[in-house]
Design a protein that fits this description.
Elements: E1 5-8, H1 18-27, E2 33-38, E3 43-45, E4 48-50, H2 62-72, E5 78-83, H3 91-97, E6 101-105, H4 112-121, E7 125-130, E8 148-152, H5 168-177, E9 182-186, H6 194-200, E10 204-207, H7 209-212, H8 217-229
Parallel strand pairs: 1-10, 2-5, 5-6, 6-7, 7-8, 8-9, 9-10
Antiparallel strand pairs: 3-4
The chain binds D-xylitol-5-phosphate and zinc ion.
The site of D-xylitol-5-phosphate has 22 residues, from strand 2, strand 10 and helix 7.
């Protein structure tokens, strides 16, 4: 694919210095920031608590995004990866906080159409994510209404997991059906696995631990971009 964009995931960064870590990524040539939001809080609806969380981990929410936006200025593109139940709940708060793209999980909502509309009305781009167990046919009906499809290459929840190569047929199928759609991969992507993603047709590359663990993030970001854009 030509013109791949690299979005570091700051999940495995030094979260006590999140602003500095984001700046370090941008200074190292990151095209955008992939910000992983995970739930862990039940939402009240119709007098009943839903205690079903989307992932077994908690990260941060819109107040942190608001602080990052203040610190980093208007330029950096924030791709919010919303690993939460009831993603409807956070559209407006995230828009107000300064998010540019709202990437929600198809598995987490009963009404993707309404959610897509709401995200647009709040001025954000729309990303639609699927977990490894979700087949790509479920995403296809929405593909013409979204800006980006995210094909997860690990089970969402944690950084540093092993890349699932058997997700590549999903990417390839989407690329064939929707030639101009942005396709993002997320999970276990680094110098050893990016080529497979690129060959399948991904053009937005999320990479967490491979970049964070390096002493030289700039060279890893450059490498990922060069391999992907070949
Ligand atoms: C996993 C997150 C990913 C994660 C990627 O649930 O969505 O964004 O941080 O980290 P690596 O690249 O280490 O798998
Ligand atoms: Zn992510």
């Amino acid at each position: 694919a030509s013109g791949c964009k690299i979005g570091p995931s700051i999940l495995n960064s030094d979260l006590a210095n999140l602003g500095a870590e984001c700046l370090r990524m941008l200074d190292s040539g990151a095209d955008y920031l992939h910000l992983d939001v995970m739930d862990g809080h039940p939402a009240l609806q119709g007098g009943q608590f839903f205690c079903k969380h989307f992932v077994p981990n908690i990260t941060f929410g819109h107040p942190v995004v608001e602080s990052l936006r203040k610190q980093l200025g208007q330029d950096p593109f924030f791709d919010m990866h919303m690993m939460v139940s009831r993603p409807e709940q956070w559209v407006k708060p995230m828009a107000v906080a300064g998010a540019n793209q709202y990437t929600f999980h198809l598995e987490a909502t009963e009404n993707p159409g309404a959610l897509i509309k709401d995200i647009r009305e709040n001025g954000m781009k729309v990303g639609l994510a699927i977990k490894p167990g979700t087949t790509v046919e479920y995403l296809a009906p929405w593909a013409n209404q979204i800006d980006m499809a995210l094909v997860m290459t690990v089970e969402p929840g944690f950084g540093g997991q092993k890349f699932m190569e058997d997700m590549m047929p999903k990417v390839h199928w989407l690329r064939t059906q929707f030639p101009t759609l942005d396709i993002e991969v997320d999970g276990g992507v680094g110098p050893d696995t990016v080529q497979k993603c690129a060959e399948a047709g991904a053009n937005m590359i999320v990479s967490g631990s491979a970049i964070m663990r390096s002493d030289d993030p700039r060279s890893v970001i450059n490498l990922l971009r060069n391999v992907c854009s070949e």
